[in-house]
Specification:
about 425 residues, alpha+beta, Serine Threonine Protein Phosphatase 5, Tetratricopeptide repeat, 3 domains, six-stranded antiparallel beta sheet, four-stranded antiparallel beta sheet, 15 strands, about 50% helix
């Protein structure tokens, strides 16, 4: 009966709103909340009504509740972003818009609002990237309003302006070296610059080359860590366990890791795998005692095995490790996992922990996200990652390397 009453009140609220009876509409929505305090449609409608009353704080509270109840609905996050914008909280607005793109990376309105946000914050390279995505997506829109045409023209102008600024920076940086460079070297630099500025995919390819040429950091950068441990434990049966996460930024993975709960190395080697959320294996590696130890903020340590770096695009992923059954003796034991306090979880910027995953198995197997065997906060595997530089940073690094090569060849000729 409650479900029917909710739908009745929601329909009556919509009719009252269309008739211009705001008070009556609000009464029906409050009646819905008396039945279900977190009902997302009612919370969303009350949030929109609060925005009309120029009360963004109340609106944000309603939208927060609606998003928590229905986190897969982009319009709710867009409305929350609008409320945060009107509250003057750019980071909260950014977080809401990025949640939309986690759900749908091609959401045009979210991309537009993020581009505008980056502009307001003076984040020129990020704004250019978002506007480029808007321009690309808009190519498939046939019936355009005059306002939308004007917006796309402004986006093109902004991107072209940023490209000119970057080209000027490159020219200034290489002016001295290119004056003495061969025609072939000059052509190569111009071709590389054009590729990196015009094609995002190329920037990731070039990044792999630069990672190979540039010095590697001595210490790994864990994707996730935590500051407080609730308990350490071990399974009696073999299983694959881990956790899921979302990233809104490009990442470069250069290692797979495993939790060493007592900082006394491992009893056995463990296979660690990374999958997309639909179960497609991205990559895997084996972590053993030849791995590099990296201190955890909790006081114990991680062990990381290096792999050939590979790019990880924004999206949803599952990371898990296989824990085999080991016959316990006086000199051997079983490697444990840890249960961390969820509010103590630390992730790098742009990455969100989304839950635990586990499955009973005899080998490394795609686990079931949110498996009832585990509560949130169960950790064993990890990744060593680096954020992918923006195209401008890549290009400036590339020009530096090319300039160094030109200088070496010039010195050799002498």
């Amino acid at each position: 009966m409650s479900a029917g009453s909710i739908q009745h009140h929601l329909a009556e609220a919509q009719r009252a709103r269309q008739a211009g009876c705001a008070d009556r509409a609000r009464g029906h929505l409050e009646a819905v909340l008396a039945i279900d305090a977190d009902q997302p449609a009612a919370r969303n409608a009350l949030g929109l009504e609060a925005l009309e009353r120029r009360d963004p704080r109340s609106a944000a509270e309603h939208f927060h509740i609606a998003c928590s109840r229905d986190p897969g609905a982009p319009p709710l996050w867009m409305n929350l972003a609008r409320a945060q914008r009107e509250l003057g909280d750019p980071e909260a607005e950014r977080a809401a818009l990025e949640r939309v793109l986690m759900i749908d990376q091609r959401d045009l309105l979210a991309l537009i609002r993020l581009a505008e946000l980056h502009e307001r914050l003076g984040e020129e390279a990020l704004a250019a990237q978002r506007w480029s995505a808007v321009i690309s997506l808009s190519a498939g829109i046939g019936d355009r309003s005059a306002e939308f045409v004007q917006l796309i023209e402004r986006a093109k102008s902004y991107v072209e302006g940023q490209s000119r600024k970057l080209a000027e920076a490159v020219d200034e940086r290489l002016a001295g070296d290119l004056a003495e460079a061969s025609a072939r070297d000059s052509r190569r630099l111009q071709a590389a610059a054009g590729a990196m500025l015009g094609r995002r995919a190329m920037s990731v390819v070039v990044l792999g080359l630069l990672v190979t040429l540039a010095p590697r950091p001595a210490v790994a950068d864990p994707l996730l860590d935590f500051t407080a441990i609730a308990k350490s434990a071990a399974r009696k049966g073999s299983s694959t366990l881990g956790w899921s996460f979302s990233t809104s930024v490009d990442l470069l993975v250069d290692g797979f890791g495993l939790w060493d709960d007592s900082s006394d190395l491992l009893y056995s080697a463990h296979d660690v795998g990374l999958w997309t959320s639909d179960g497609t294996l991205v990559s895997s590696a084996t972590v053993d005692n030849t791995a590099t130890p990296v201190a955890s903020a909790s006081g114990a340590q991680w062990l990381f095995t290096s792999v050939t770096p590979f790019a990880l695009a924004p999206g949803d992923y599952v990371l898990a490790a296989f824990y085999p059954v080991i016959k316990l003796t006086e000199t051997t034991g079983s490697d444990g996992y840890t249960v961390a306090a969820v509010d103590s979880i630390l992730t790098i910027a742009g990455v969100t922990y989304t839950g635990s995953a586990a499955i009973t198995s005899s080998a490394l197997t795609f686990p079931i996200s949110g498996d009832a065997l585990f509560v949130n906060g169960v950790f064993g595997p990890n990744l060593s990652v680096r954020s992918v530089p923006e195209p401008a940073s890549i290009l400036l690094l590339a020009t530096g390397l090319i300039a160094a090569g030109i200088a070496r060849r010039r010195s050799a000729r002498r």
